[in-house]
Amino acid sequence: MQVPSHVLMGIPHSASSLPLSAIGEACSRRDLTAIHEILEAIGYKDDEGVTNELSFQMWTDEMQQSLESKKKGDTAFKQKDYKTAVERYSQFVDGGMISPTVLARRSLSYLMSDTPREALDDAMQAQVISPVWHIASYLQASALLALGMENEAQDALKEGTTLEAKRDGLDAK
Question: Quick one: DSSP state of residue 113?
Fold first, then answer.
């Protein structure tokens, strides 16, 4: 009989007692359709304040191509053409642009394409760019669940819930 370590150590499993938001709940269930709808609704508002460091060459055709790739990625994402979304968002990222939302959308597109390792990589990169963004933690949880890493997924859900509560507390002020 296997008993979880937190039970043996007498530590409450707090991740299961924290209330989850709609995005947290969807990620915990790996409800990819619900995650897609939420990311569509959020749009790019969470990218505000993220700086894009552009070299001089980025102000040329390369920048225009990268931005066009993002637009095409957004269209594919909206149409649930996840393979194309991954390709177009990859062109945007490879062009030197930084956007946690693009990484989150590409992460979900990878999950929809049954490539959870890549999804986890993008969710982690989004968190590096925007450390307090709860969406990145929730997407990590969903990718970790897909990889069969239940304990790590619970930790990521807990972190996402904590970050979201802090954000909501700041928004209320």
Answer: T
